[in-house]
Structures are given as structure tokens and as C-alpha cells.
Amino acid sequence: MRYWLTLGAVLLALPAGVAPAAAQDTAAAQTNALQPSPVWEDLRYSIIAADVDPPLNTAVLDLEAPVRAHDAAIVPVRLTQSPTAPALEALTLVIDGNPAPVAAEYSFGPALMPLDFEVRVRVDSYSDVRAIATQADGAQVMAGRFVKAAGGCSAPAGKDMAAVEASMGQMRWRSTSEDGRQIGTLMIRHPNFSGLQRDQVTLLNIPAHFIDRLDVRQGEDLLFTMSAGISVSEDPVFRFQYEPNGQPVHVRVEDTDGNTWTESFPATGEPVNKS
Fold first, then answer.
1. What residues contact residue 163 under an 8 Å CB cut-off, 6+ apart?
2. Where does the Ig-like SoxY domain start and stop, copy by copy (predicted)?
3. pLDDT tens string 156-197
4. What is 21-272's CATH number?
5. Domains of the chain: which residue ranges?
6. Displacement of CA 102 from its chain's centroid (Å)
7. CA-CA distance, 188 to 236, in Å (whole number)?
């Protein structure tokens, strides 16, 4: 498997002569709206301390995800705003049907506004995938999609344990210019074991072991932080637009086993691997 992947490679083109159900899913990909969710009704107050949903406003926040995931263990999720949308300070990503529904909590620096941010997640059963964001004035907004996927949290890991140990904590970074904005892509080698997977050799359960804290800055200025659970994919990739300030990009990663990795990368230029 190639080391360097972008989120776009996760989606496959639809071949000619596909089954009718697949064709319908493709046609509906832009309209897979949130569905009624009894799980969310039970979760809502504990997550956002509110009895009613925040408003849906795709100009302020939109969430893109495939209507039917090609691989439930690496479902691409993209969060976007219109150019004139108010700035967001924090965001909680929730996958209603997952064993641990809160996939990640993010804080964003001004350089990421307006937001265009991608991450890959595990989806364990047909589920709403929703984001609840908080604006600078404290107002909340929600966005989401219903994703058809199953088994993502228990899907076998992509590498054997020896390969995991050899590469864990390695990072790659690249920064390119697209349509007048800078696009950063950060990849981190980590199995992000969910605790629901089995070692394919011993058939024993693999204990949960995942990145639970990520801090990304340019110089001293915040790009974003992430506090995560078991739902972020193996070897996570983050792709985001940002306003560069010319300073090096500093990354700090912590996982649930107490490991810490740090790297610094040039702000622009060719991909760099310092690990």
C-alpha cells in the first residue's frame, strides 16, 4: 500500500453497467440528508447541552460524506463553509451508530477560516454522521449526512503488528497552492486500534490504542487541535485549507499508551519526512 494517500483516492469512479442500487446511491450522494435518529435523541444533551438541534445552514457549515462508503474503515468526511460564513472556533464530530459516538472534538485557529477540512473515520453501522460547530459568538450550527457503511470499527488492521511497531508515529506533510489558498496535508502513521479488532495471527482482541490528542501549529499560531476517540481511521490523514504565515508547521501527537511524537516541517515546498 502506498504510503502517501489523499482522501480523494478513497472514492472510486462508478463503472458502466453498475447495479441499480449503486446507481441510485450515486445519484443521491449529494442529498443523503440526516435521518431521524433515536440514538441522537438520547445523546444530544450530553454532547451539546441542548434539548433541540442547532440549526442546519449549509452556508455556515456543510458536511460531505458518501451515501454508501467504499470502505467502512476509511470513510472520508469533508467539512466546509462558504467564503462569507462566520468563523468557527470548535467542532464536535459525531457518528451516531458507533460504539463511542463522539469521533473527535476540534478547535480551529483563524488561519483555517473559512473552514475546508477533511478527515477519514470509521463507521460501524448505517448511521448519521454529524458535526456541531460553535461560532465565535457562542452560537451553534449543525451539518450532517446519512452514511451506509458497516463494520468499520472492527475491520482488520491493514498491517501486521511488527509493521505497526516499526512505523508508528512517522509523519508526512505537504503544502500546495490551489485556487489561491494553501492546502496542507498531514499523514500520521498509527494503527488507531479501536479495541474491537482481532490480531489476524493470534485471533485475540487487540487492546484499544489510538491517537487521542493532536496539536498542529504554524509557528506559535494555532491551526487546529483534535481530541479523538476510536473512530478516527488507521493512519489518519488530515487535509485542510489555511492561510500561511511563513512559519514552520509544528505537529505534536499523543496516544492512549502515553507515547508522544513531535515533528516540524517547512511551511511550503516539497513533502518532507523527518521520521
1. none
2. 58-153
3. 887 778 888 899 999 999 999 987 789 999 999 999 999 999
4. 2.60.40.2470
5. 21-272
6. 12
7. 6
